[in-house]
Prior knowledge:
By secondary structure, the protein is of the alpha/beta class. It has five helices and 19 strands. The chain has one domain (3-240). Helix content is 18%, strand content 32%. The strands form three sheets. Strands 10, 11, 12, 13, 14, 15, 16, 17, 18 and 19 form a ten-stranded mixed sheet that branches. Strands 3-4-5-6-7-8-9 form a seven-stranded mixed sheet, covered by helices on one side. The chain starts with a strand and ends in a 5-residue tail after the last strand.
Amino acid sequence: MPMLDLMGGAADGPAMTDPAAFPLNGARLCADPSGVLLWPEHRTLIVADLHLEKGSGFARRGVMLPPYDTGATLTRLASAIDTHRPARVICLGDSFHDPAAASRVAAKDGEKIRALTARTDWLWIAGNHDPAPPADWGGAVTDTLVDGPLTFRHAAVADTAPGEVSGHYHPKARVRARGKSVSGRCFVTDGRRLILPAFGAYTGGLDVGHPELRRLLARRFEVFLLAAGRVWRVPGSKLMTPARV
């Protein structure tokens, strides 16, 4: 799918098509196939749940995973930043998998983080796993950011004002298309709030039909499903549950 350039023009093709663009409380947002959210008017890229060093965290508990998730996640994030050239990046919490994760980040990956935070105005939203990254890695830290019509936080609040953007739940969904089951991570919105998919390489997910997610959403909602390098806009009523991805 063609990518939207936050500088105001198109990058290698036309602007992102309407199926991935949608309003939230008066702000025009774009769901990107990479899993990041774009707010073009504010030249902002938003990403949720990097969960850096999840692999090493599992290894400490005897579950051996290839120790490459941090490098892979940072490479994908750098690619999204290269494509869209934002002036600001907002990380919606759980950027690190646990409170000790930063101490396990390899030196080369720590340098990647410093290089990324030096490129833009960078904001770390504190999550339940990571109150704050090391100060010398750059960026500012806060619990919540209110910017015009939008409120950015890690986890959705039940009785929030319209315009909330959050992560935490790692939403996933499944739909039948052309006789086949298509599943993947997704953005989910009911027009009042938006919950982003997890971006980290080893992150799991929660089906949008799960009670923990459904209690936050209005009866009518839709998802922007990430599958086959595309964004698929699907009404909640058309989804298959549970998603097995």
